[in-house]
Design a protein that fits this description.
two-stranded antiparallel ribbon; globular; Thiol Ester Dehydrase, Chain A; five-stranded antiparallel β-sheet; 152 residues; 7 strands; alpha+beta
Length: 152
């Protein structure tokens, strides 16, 4: 299998995730559903640390949810217990109530996986989508300007 090289854009939000025993199947390879939990953690950290928006407050106080409404992932190379996988978040599109995001998992410049996902902002009270508030949209647009145009 050809190794895809990946260099994150300048300023792109990246977190290193240690691959633990609890992430792995009996062969010591990450069991794929655990990646989706890692993706959600990356998005939470991105809101709070990169955008300066307290993700827990959005959910617990403001009563908004941000479910995945679409997700597809290409698994290119396995990740194993004991490795430290870098996850980089690339924002690709801002919609009315949704964000299209690409998350790239990479190690030492080699791409291990690439996920394309869409999250939608919804009211936890009505269970309906809601328009992204202007202040939040401004933060997303600022991140797009920081990292530049990206391809999924």
């Amino acid at each position: 299998m050809k190794e895809d090289r990946f260099v994150p854009p300048e300023g792109a939000f990246t977190r290193t995730v240690p691959i633990r025993f609890s992430h792995c199947d009996p062969a010591g390879i990450v069991y794929f559903p655990h990646y989706f939990d890692m993706f959600n953690g990356l998005i939470e950290d991105w809101y709070t640390e990169q955008l300066g928006v307290d993700y827990s407050k959005l959910i617990l106080n403001d009563r908004y949810g941000f479910p995945f409404v679409h997700i597809e992932t290409d698994f290119k190379l396995p990740s194993r217990m004991g490795e430290n996988l870098d996850l980089t978040l690339l924002l690709t599109k801002i919609g009315y109530s949704s964000l299209s995001v690409t998350i790239v998992g990479h190690l030492a410049g080699v791409e291990r996986l690439r996920a394309r996902l869409v999250t939608a902002m919804m009211s936890l009270e009505t269970q309906q989508k809601v328009e992204l508030p202007r202040a939040l949209r401004d933060r997303f647009e600022g991140y797009l300007k920081l990292i530049g145009p990206t391809q999924s």
